[in-house]
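User: Can you predict the 3D structure for this chain?
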Amino acid sequence: MTRVAAVDCGTNSIRLLISDISEKGKIKDISRTMEIVRLGEGVDATGEISEAALARTHAALEDYVGQMRFEGVTRVRMVATSATRDAKNQQQFFNMTAELLGQIQPGARAEVISGEEEANLSFKGAVSDLTEEKSPYCVIDLGGGSTEFIVGTSDGDILGAYSAQMGCVRLTERILRTDPPTETEIEIAQDYVADRMEEVEKIVPVSKAKTFVGCAGTFTTLSALAQGLERYDADAIHGTQLRFDALRVLIRELAKSPADVRALNPVIHPGRADVIGGGSIAVEGIMNLVERNSKADSFIISEKDILDGIIAGLAAEMR
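Assistant: Here is the predicted structure, written as structure tokens:
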């Protein structure tokens, strides 16, 4: 039995998954942790990661390394996505991760992965619990700076993938600057999302998908809100079905409400309250895309994503 860890550092959050891998490659999850660090704060405007964002991320990763040492982790892989791909001073970030992760595995450091690899890892994780008859799947991983669209089959054959430059943080910082956003800002954001969806339609065979899977914080939080949960419960969220007609009503309320009102709901993480309106507008555009290209009228929500794909990759390497 080998204990391993996966770390995903995106535009908005940094997340940790610790798992055991048996000699036969069987995976057992030990713990999952998430912190909002907003690494990508201001990157869209300045092209650089701010010192404050680096400090927040350092503190969170240092805590994760402490957890790994306590749990006896011997192998770790960390990936960094949209924010670091776009930042001119990304080397500071890499040096920091090398210093910390080297305490677990000599030479380990964060890797900037392409949008295509991010899509493949997200797909592997998101569909791991889905049955074959629901295939082909379209996995939609809505992040802070980008959103990955991946269409593939149950045997792992990827039919098409694309990383759209659209996420909850990017939309909020670039367009939704008023709190609550004005009608004009919402319309501009909707138009921006619609343009990104046209790009997706040209590259990804969305019409071939039978099941549409939403993963990452915006989708999972929308599921918690739709269910009326009193606290965020990953087990209650994973595998739920969100119908488009009901989701549109929820989205309109979220997009127009101020951040301090959103933050009062216990299922909305305080670090997500100011950007989930942007995420909701992105989801609305994604629903329009799905309806144009299929007969589907709902999303399946997955708590599994890129972290699970990383762990699966480590298991494959060990075999």
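The two ends are 12 Å apart (CA to CA). The longest strand covers residues 27-36.
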